[in-house]
Design goal:
This protein is an all-alpha fold. It is built from 21 helices and four strands. It has three domains: 123 residues, no CATH class; 191 residues, Serine Threonine Protein Phosphatase 5, Tetratricopeptide repeat; 71 residues, Four Helix Bundle (Hemerythrin (Met), subunit A), CATH 1.20.120.
Length: 488
C-alpha cells in the first residue's frame, strides 16, 4: 500500500515555548534604529534581544542539513534520497524554490544582531548579552555560512548590498562573493575579544575558540571549492585556514542538538509526527555502502534496502507497494527525537584535508588525513573501533596511489550525508561518485537551482541580468548552467 501523505513539502522550526515567547517580544530588526513612537504598542518592548535572535537562528539551521525544500531537493540531486511517489524533483522538474525564507528569516536576524551591536545608539544596551565584538563576530560567521549555502545553490546572488532594506538590490557574481566570504571569515575570527560570551549560544556555549575553528573550517571548504577555477587562491587560503586552526575532533563539531519533546530531529518529526513518507534512502547510496561493506549503512537508514532513484510516479508507487520495507532516512527507531545534525564535522574537514594534500596544497599526509577523516565520520555515527579498523584495511577503501581522488571524493560524499547542500556541491565539483541521472527523465542532473518566483516580480532588472548569465540552450536561468566554480 502507498503510505499516505498530507502535503508535498514542509519547513520545520523547532523552538521552545520560552524561546517563542522571547521572540514574540522582539521588534522587527529593520526598526532597530528607529525609536519614534509612531504606531508603536506602548506595552510591547521595541528593543531586539540578540540572545533570542541567536537561539532562533541556531534552532532552524538544522533545516539546512535536512528539513526545508532547498535542502531536501539538494539531497535528491546528489542521490542521498529518493522520492517515493511525488517524483518531480528527482526527475528534474524546476522546483521553483526561492531564498526568501533565508534572507527574510535567519539572515535578517543575524544582520539585526550586527546592526544592534554596531549602532552607537544601541550597542551599549547590547552588552548585557555578551561583548559587542563577540556578538558581531558570531553573527558574521553564521551569515557567511548561509551565503555559502545560497551561492552554491543558485550562483550569483545579492550579497554586498543585501539585508539593507533595499528590495531591488543587485546580484553579486559568485566569483566576487567567494573571496569576500573568505575575507569576512578571517575578519570575524580576528574580531573576537576576551569579553563576555554571547548568550543564547546552545551550540558552542559561547566558546570563541570553537567558533574560530568553525569559521576556519568554512574558510577551508570555500577554498577547496575553488580547486578548478582559482587553485592559486584556493591553495593559499586552504593552507592558511588549516594553520589558523580548523575542526579536528568530533568534540568541536558544529552540531545542532535535539533534546526531544518539542525539540525533535527534523527527520523524526517528518516521519513520526507529521506521518509523511515522501522521502527514502536512495538505492544509490545503499549500493555504495554495501559495495564497501560500510557499517554506516545501519545508521543512514533503518534498513539497508534503498529506494530506486528517479522513478516515474507510477513506477515509484508500484515499487513501494511491493517493497514496504524500504529504508527511511536515518536509524530513527533508535534515538528518534534526539538524533543530532552536524553542520560541519571533523570527518568532513579531515577528508577535505586529504584531498588538499593530494592536490599538493599542504604538507599533510594524505593517507593519514583520509583515514582520520573516515574514522571521525564513523565515530560520529557510533561505529565501533574494531569495525573502523576492518573497514580501513579493505583494498576498495585504502588509498593506493592510482584512484585516490575518486576514493576521497566518494568518502566526502558519504561523510556529508544527509546534508544535501554539501553533498551536491562536492559532487558537482569533483564528479564523485559517478551518479546516473533519473532513468527516462531525458535531463541531466541539475548543476544549480533556478531563482525563485519573487525575484522576477519584485527585482526584475537585477534578476534578469543574473538570470541571463545562466542561459543554456536558449533557456535563461537554466538548471543546466554551471556556477562559477563548477568546471568540467
Amino acid at each position: 500500500m502507498v503510505k499516505k501523505v498530507i502535503m508535498k513539502t514542509i519547513n520545520f522550526k523547532f523552538l521552545s515555548v520560552a524561546l517563542v515567547a522571547s521572540l514574540l517580544m522582539i521588534s522587527s530588526c529593520s526598526k532597530i534604529n528607529e525609536f519614534d513612537d509612531t504606531n508603536v504598542n506602548p506595552n510591547a518592548p521595541t528593543i531586539p534581544v540578540p540572545s533570542a535572535l541567536l537561539s532562533n537562528v541556531l534552532a532552524v539551521i538544522g533545516n539546512n542539513v535536512w528539513g526545508n525544500a532547498i535542502a531536501q531537493t539538494s539531497a535528491l540531486y546528489c542521490q542521498y534520497c529518493s522520492e517515493t511517489q511525488y517524483t518531480d524533483a528527482s526527475r528534474y522538474t524546476d522546483p521553483n524554490l526561492g531564498w526568501d525564507g533565508y534572507y527574510g528569516g535567519p539572515m535578517y536576524d543575524l544582520q539585526g544582531i550586527i546592526n544592534y551591536n554596531t549602532d552607537p545608539a544601541t550597542k551599549d544596551l547590547a552588552i548585557i548579552y555578551g561583548s559587542n565584538a563577540n556578538q558581531i563576530a558570531t553573527a558574521r560567521i553564521l551569515l557567511d555560512y548561509y551565503y555559502m549555502v545560497l551561492t552554491d545553490t543558485y550562483g550569483d546572488l545579492p550579497y554586498s548590498a543585501a539585508l539593507k532594506n533595499n528590495p531591488t538590490v543587485a546580484f553579486d557574481k559568485q566569483q566576487d562573493v567567494y573571496p569576500a566570504l573568505i575575507n569576512d571569515l578571517k575578519a570575524a575570527v580576528a574580531q573576537f575579544d576576551a569579553g563576555a560570551a554571547f548568550q543564547g549560544d546552545f551550540v558552542y556555549s559561547g566558546s570563541t575558540a570553537k567558533w574560530k575553528k568553525f569559521a576556519n573550517s568554512l574558510r577551508a571548504i570555500l577554498a577547496l571549492r575553488m580547486s578548478k577555477i582559482n587553485p592559486t587562491l584556493g591553495k593559499t587560503e586552504f593552507a592558511a585556514a588549516v594553520t589558523a586552526g580548523v575542526i579536528t575532533d568530533n568534540a568541536d563539531n558544529f552540531t545542532i542538538p535535539y533534546p526531544g519533546g518539542t525539540y525533535r530531529n527534523p527527520v523524526n518529526n517528518y516521519y513520526v509526527i507529521i506521518q509523511r513518507f515522501d522521502y527514502a534512502v536512495s538505492k544509490t547510496i545503499t549500493d555504495k555502502l554495501t559495495a564497501l561493506a560500510d557499517p554506516r549503512i545501519s545508521k543512514f537508514g533503518h534498513t539497508s534496502k534503498g529506494f530506486p532513484y528517479g522513478l516515474s510516479r507510477d513506477d515509484a508507487i508500484a515499487w513501494s507497494d511491493l517493497n514496504a520495507d524500504y529504508a527511511n532516512l536515518l536509524a530513527y527507531t533508535a534515538t528518534p527525537q534526539t538524533f543530532p545534525f552536524h553542520v560541519i564535522a571533523a570527518g568532513q574537514v579531515w577528508l577535505a584535508r586529504a584531498e588538499a594534500a593530494k592536490l599538493g596544497w599542504t604538507a599533510d599526509d594524505a593517507t593519514v588525513a583520509y583515514n582520520t577523516g573516515i574514522s571521525a565520520s564513523m565515530e560520529q555515527w557510533g561505529i565501533a573501533a574494531a569495525s573502523i579498523t576492518t573497514y580501513l584495511a579493505q583494498s576498495s577503501v585504502m588509498l593506493n596511489g592510482t584512484n585516490d581522488l575518486q576514493k576521497i571524493g566518494e568518502q566526502r560524499w558519504l561523510a556529508h550525508y544527509p546534508d544535501g547542500n554539501q553533498g551536491w556541491a562536492e559532487w558537482r565539483r569533483t564528479g564523485f561518485p559517478n551518479l546516473t541521472a533519473a532513468p527516462g527523465a531525458g535531463k541531466q542532473i541539475p548543476r544549480r537551482m533556478s531563482y525563485g518566483p519573487n525575484d522576477p516580480l519584485y527585482n526584475p532588472t537585477n534578476w534578469d541580468a543574473a538570470a541571463t548569465r545562466y542561459t543554456v540552450g536558449g533557456v535563461k536561468d537554466s538548471q543546466d548552467a554551471r556556477i562559477w566554480w563548477d568546471k568540467p
